[in-house]
Amino acid sequence: RELELTACSLKGVEEEKKELRSLTESLQNTLEELSLEKQQMLEMLEENESQVPPPTSPSKEQSPIWGLHCSLRQIEEKMQQLLQEKLLAEKRMKENEERSRALEEEREFYSSQSQALQNSLLELTAEKQQAERDLKAEVKVRMDLEKRLREAEEALQSLEQGLNSLNFNKEKEKKMKADVSNLRKFFEECIRNAELEAKMPVIMKNSVYIHKAATRRIKSCRFRCRRTSASWNDMKQSQSFIFSPAEAENIEELKEAAKRLSRDQRFRKTIYQIMRSQKDSASGDKK
C-alpha cells in the first residue's frame, strides 16, 4: 500500500515538474520579448528626444515622448512581474526536485521491503510445507509404533491365556512359542534401539502426545507382564513338559528384560524417537 502511494505521489511530482518547466520557459520567452521591446522603446525615446523641439503646450499627456515613457514604464513593470513569477516557478521546481529525490528513495526503500517480505513469505511457505511433510511422516511413524505395540500386547495377552489354560496340545504349544518369539523379537529390537539412541540422539518436536500414548501402551504391557509372570510361576511346574529347560530359561530372561525395560522411564520416552530415527535412516538409504 505504501509503495503504491509513493509511486502515485512521485508521478504527480513529475507531472508538476513538467508544468513548471513549461511555465518557466514561457515566462523566459515573454521576458526576452519584453526586453527586446524595451530596447526598441529606449531607442525610439532617444531618437524623439533629440529631434522633437521643446513643447509649447503645458499638457504633457499629449506629448509623444511622454507616451513613450509611459509605455516603457509599463514594460518594466510587466517584466518585473514576470521575473517574480519566474523566480517563484524556479523555486517550486527546486522544491519538486528535492521532493522527487525523497520520493524516489522512499520508493526504493518500500520496494526493498516488499521484496524482503516476499522472500519471507516464500520461506514461510516452504517451512509450512516442510512442517506438513514432517507431520505426515510423524503420524505414519506413530501409526507404525501403535501397530507394533498393539501386536506386542496381543502376543502377550495370547501368551497369558495360553499359560492360564489347563488343556495343551500341539497347536497351542506352537502358538505360545510363536507369541514368545514375537515378544522376544520386540524387546530385543527395543534394546537395540536403546543402544542406537545412546549413540545417535534424536530431538523430536511436538511429540508430547505421542510420547504419552507410547508410555501408556508400555505401562499396559508392563501390567500384563506382571500378570503373566504370576501365572507362569503358578503353573511352571505343571507345564514344564511344554518347553525344554533352555526355552523356559529364555522365557524367564525375556520376562526380566521386559520388566526392566518397562520400568525405565527414559527408555519409554525414547522408543518413539529411536523408531523415527531408524525410519528416517532407512528412507535416506533408499534415496
UniProtKB/TrEMBL annotation:
Positions of region (Disordered): 42-64
Protein name in the entry: PLHD1 protein
Organism: Spizella passerina (Chipping sparrow)
